[in-house]
């Protein structure tokens, strides 16, 4: 098929590259001329394992192109995917201005019988509104619409796309369903699970999924707090809970709270949608409140461990991104925690394998260094904020020697409590006996 992806952000770029690798001819379209220029030079503006290789391979095979020209891309398309940003407004409502702009610009250029697919995460009813708008703008063009939410984990997005746990499609009619079955035929042929449903249901599956995972994370963090009051182990509790097939062990890692581009935005958007429709979302609202307070709690814990005052004290910070294997800092707990420590007067030296350049404008006054051990020099404490694998294998003897005070505050529970104690360091983790903060 000839496919156009509007938007070369995280979702659009991964989707376009992967669809081209499945054999489709794909044009990735964006109004950002600088970004398209970089992509045409083989420079990928985001860090995602495997993505650069995918783009280089399919660009060389002429299956993948990048353009800013609607007139070039849209008329040749059998399907157009809208994958533009839908950021949160001050009220939590999703901002659909980029979606509206894409629809209005593409509408006069669509070939007869084109299927337009909503890939962006949008509130329930948005794809139906897109259908109505396209029908008004092009009443005789036979355009059909579909909803195809993404379920890509940052750091594993290429793997998730090529080996999905499910493909969700909402279709306006048989034409849209047929087109989307053809798009995903290579994966469906290999046995990928799929749900073909109506537009509203497909949209809500996305929000419900992310909100449920956010609830799991907030839940386990509250249980971790209880563990700290009862000398129980959150690690063993998560293992025990995860053995129940009805629960699973995914998203039961206690820590500094969730972040990223999806969970904070999607939970707020779901709350707004529920309010508009007069439906209760008290569980999701509670999860949001727990997560909002979590970062402040982590700041308070560092201050308490360092004697109640961090003013003028050196603190090493490992991790800036909201999770490992990405350069994304959106809603990252690490950024908020570091800001809070700086606000309390701490002198922070930070390192992250991929997030430093994006973090520089967000953290004025923070010193960024080239490796994990440089953060430790003369530090009163080393705070682990992101679960990068390299942070879990530090030479603890070297850390002890370089630090002013041999203290590790591990908000990701990367180390065994006894192992760090045997190395002669003071160790504080989350929700674990003898390693609690």
Number of separate domains: 2
Give me the side-by-side strand order of the main sheet.
3-2-1-4-5-6-7-8
Could you please say which CATH topology of the largest domain applies here?
Answer: Rossmann fold
Low-confidence runs (pLDDT<50, min 5 residues)?
none
Number of beta-strand segments: 14
Q: Give the integer mean of the pLDDT values.
A: 95
Main sheet specs: 8 strands, mixed
The rounded distance between the terminal residues' Cα atoms is 55 Å
Helix content: 40-55%
What is the CATH architecture descriptor of the largest domain?
A: 3-Layer(aba) Sandwich
CATH C-level label of the largest domain: Alpha Beta
Please name the fourth-level CATH homologous superfamily of the largest domain: NAD(P)-binding Rossmann-like Domain
Radius of gyration: 24 Å
3D shape? elongated
**Number of helical regions:** 17
Structural class per helix/strand content? alpha/beta
Beta-strand residue fraction: 5-15%
What does this structure look like?
This protein is α/β, with parallel strands linked by helices. The protein has two domains: 2-197, NAD(P)-binding Rossmann-like Domain (Rossmann fold), CATH 3.40.50; 213-428, 3-Layer(aba) Sandwich (Rossmann fold). The chain contains 17 helices and 14 strands. Strands 3-2-1-4-5-6-7-8 form an eight-stranded mixed beta sheet, sandwiched between helices. Strands 11-10-9-12-13-14 form a six-stranded parallel beta sheet. It is elongated, with a radius of gyration of 24 Å. It starts with a strand and ends in a 9-residue tail after the last strand. The mean pLDDT is 95.
């Amino acid at each position: 098929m000839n496919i156009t992806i509007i938007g070369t952000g995280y979702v659009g770029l991964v989707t376009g590259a992967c669809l081209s690798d499945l054999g489709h001819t794909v044009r990735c379209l964006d109004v950002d001329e600088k970004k398209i220029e970089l992509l045409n030079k083989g420079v990928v503006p985001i860090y995602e394992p495997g993505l650069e290789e995918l783009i280089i391979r399919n660009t060389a095979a002429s299956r993948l192109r990048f353009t800013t020209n609607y007139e070039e891309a849209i008329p040749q398309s059998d399907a157009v995917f809208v994958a533009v940003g839908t950021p949160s407004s001050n009220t939590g409502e999703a901002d659909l201005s980029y979606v509206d702009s894409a629809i209005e610009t593409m509408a006069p250029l669509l070939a007869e019988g084109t299927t337009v697919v909503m890939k962006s995460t949008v509130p329930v009813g948005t794809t139906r509104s897109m259908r109505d708008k396209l029908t008004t703008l092009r009443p005789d063009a036979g355009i059909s619409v579909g909803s195809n939410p993404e379920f890509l984990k940052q750091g594993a997005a290429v793997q998730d796309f090529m080996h999905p746990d499910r493909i969700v499609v909402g279709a306006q009619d048989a034409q849209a369903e047929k087109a989307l079955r053809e798009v995903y035929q290579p994966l469906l042929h290999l046995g990928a699970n799929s749900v073909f449903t109506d537009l509203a249901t497909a949209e809500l599956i996305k929000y419900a999924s992310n909100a449920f995972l956010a609830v799991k994370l907030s839940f386990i963090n509250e249980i971790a707090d209880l563990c700290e009051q009862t000398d129980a182990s959150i690690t063993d509790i998560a293992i025990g809970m995860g053995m129940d097939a009805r629960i699973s062990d995914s998203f039961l890692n206690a820590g500094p709270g969730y972040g990223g581009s999806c969970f904070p935005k999607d939970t707020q958007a779901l709350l707004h949608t529920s309010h508009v429709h007069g439906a209760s979302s008290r569980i999701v609202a509670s999860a949001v409140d727990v997560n909002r307070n979590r970062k402040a709690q982590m700041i308070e814990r560092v201050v308490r461990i360092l004697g109640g005052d961090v003013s003028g004290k050196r603190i090493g910070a490992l991790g800036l991104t909201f999770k490992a294997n990405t350069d994304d800092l959106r809603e990252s707990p690490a950024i908020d925690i570091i800001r809070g420590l700086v606000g309390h007067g701490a002198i922070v030296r930070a390192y992250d394998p991929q997030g430093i350049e994006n973090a520089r404008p967000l953290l004025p006054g923070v010193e960024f260094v080239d490796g994990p051990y440089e953060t430790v020099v003369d530090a009163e404490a080393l705070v682990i904020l992101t679960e990068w694998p390299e942070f879990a294998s530090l030479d603890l003897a070297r850390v002890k020697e370089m630090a002013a005070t041999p203290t590790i505050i591990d908000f990701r529970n990367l180390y065994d409590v006894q192992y760090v104690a045997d190395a002669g360091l003071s160790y504080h983790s989350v929700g674990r006996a003898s390693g609690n903060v």
